[in-house]
Write a structure and sequence with these properties.
By secondary structure, chain A is of the alpha/beta class. Chain A has helices spanning about 15-25, 40-45, 55, 65, 90-100, 120, 140-155, 170-190, 200-210, 215-235, and strands at about 5-10, 30-35, 60, 75-80, 90, 105-110, 125-130. In chain A, strands 3-2-1-6-4-7-5 form a seven-stranded parallel β-sheet. The radius of gyration of chain A is 29 Å and the shape is elongated. Chain A starts with a strand and ends with a helix. At the A-B interface, helix 1, strand 5, helix 5 and helix 7 of A face helix 1, strand 5, helix 5 and helix 7 of B.
Chain lengths: ~240, ~240
């Protein structure tokens, strides 16, 4: 997404400017533009301990039209409550699909207190809404930037990825574990010798349900070997 | 997602505690638990201007096991660089699907500086990783909470929602607009009377590409009516 510029319009809090830059760095975006910031706030954000390359390279513009002059798609973010009903409003999940792959997009975020003004919004092709609760739509600026950028880089194919990369134990290993466990149970007197029917099957299912990795199976085999050694020694 | 508890382990910055609570309120979560917070930070966060109901209702616990005692699924969040390779690590997109619908989940976030300790992690069933750049994995605490909760509430069906709810103009309206535009062009001398072949078709396509709403079509019809009136008056 090298074609995306994050545009903060009239931000007032240096922590929020820095947080926006940090989220950009986390998610792989680099072009930060700041319109008419409170001057002290901007200088504080740039000089803050831990300010990263994104923050250092941020550019300041006096007005929105100047900040977005080279962008061919301009998208505003909004709480979505007070707006022109004619302006298309798209939920983040859908809007992100329309932004992805576009060569030069400006994504606008309004000030902490007032959001984007009607004048700012008139420069936008459409508006994008983060699906927050209608009772509490107003998001923290840094968090709103993070959530929008995350939606842009998230990978839907990962949503159905395999459970996890651990190497599961082979059946021969779990069967060995079942045998050793059976020996422990027998020697320790767990069975009363009247109800052993189906015991092997039940033990096998019990071990399977542990869903062990190769490595943990080795650990369990060692545990039961030690228990057996102790049981036999005291018998 | 009333069954989800956000657990902040040893947070140090009151702004981050407050930001986590705000994101929870934005996305409809209410159970915030704070383990061993820096005491001053916690009191500041609760008493901060704008602290919401989630923050007011937050509970403090001395240790992780006490905070998660009633939860049957415990998921840790991590930058994912220094961890036990045996602990399953799932990307956020996938992990969220496993959390959704679970009746009692604890989602753990570590301290700003160190993340979750190995001891904290040993209480987790598995770990969840936000897909940040490997060069800059470490996220701001409040932003990490916001992004994880967003993934839990986002609606994939919305990603393919219809473009936007505006009511598009009917073809009869756009055709009327094309006719009026043609009249304006003719009277204003836009055509040189040698190249009119295909002009009607090209104008129709031009108007279609405006992709107008009903309301904007009425506006444009009025504009051209006024231009025509002026053109005819000065002719």
């Amino acid at each position: 997404m090298s074609g995306l510029s994050v545009v903060l319009v009239s931000p007032r809090n240096p922590l929020n400017i820095g947080a926006a830059a940090r989220a950009m760095s986390n998610f792989g975006f680099s072009d930060l533009r700041v319109v008419n910031p409170y001057d002290v706030a901007f200088r504080e954000a740039v000089s803050a301990v831990g300010a990263d390359a994104v923050m250092q390279a941020a550019r300041v513009y006096p007005t929105v039209p100047e900040a977005i002059a080279d962008c061919s798609l301009v998208v505003g973010t909004t709480g979505g409550d007070h707006r022109d009903p004619e302006q298309p409003l798209r939920r983040l999940e859908y809007g992100a699909r329309m932004i992805q792959g576009h060569p030069s997009v400006a994504l606008l975020f309004g000030s902490e207190k007032y959001g984007l003004s009607n004048d700012d919004i008139s420069h936008c092709h459409w508006l994008m809404q983060i699906p927050a609760r209608s009772e509490h739509r107003s998001m923290n600026l840094g968090q709103a930037v993070a959530v929008c950028l995350y939606e842009l880089i998230r990978d839907e194919t990962m949503a159905s990825a395999p459970a996890h990369p651990k190497r599961s134990a082979a059946s021969s290993q779990t069967e060995l574990l079942r045998e050793r466990l059976a020996e422990v149970l027998l020697i320790s007197g767990y069975y009363d010798h009247t109800a052993v029917e189906g015991a092997e099957r039940r033990l096998r299912a019990l071990v399977k349900r542990m869903n062990l990795s190769q490595q943990d199976t080795v650990v369990w085999l060692g545990i039961f070997r030690q228990i057996l050694w102790k049981l036999k020694g005291t018998a």
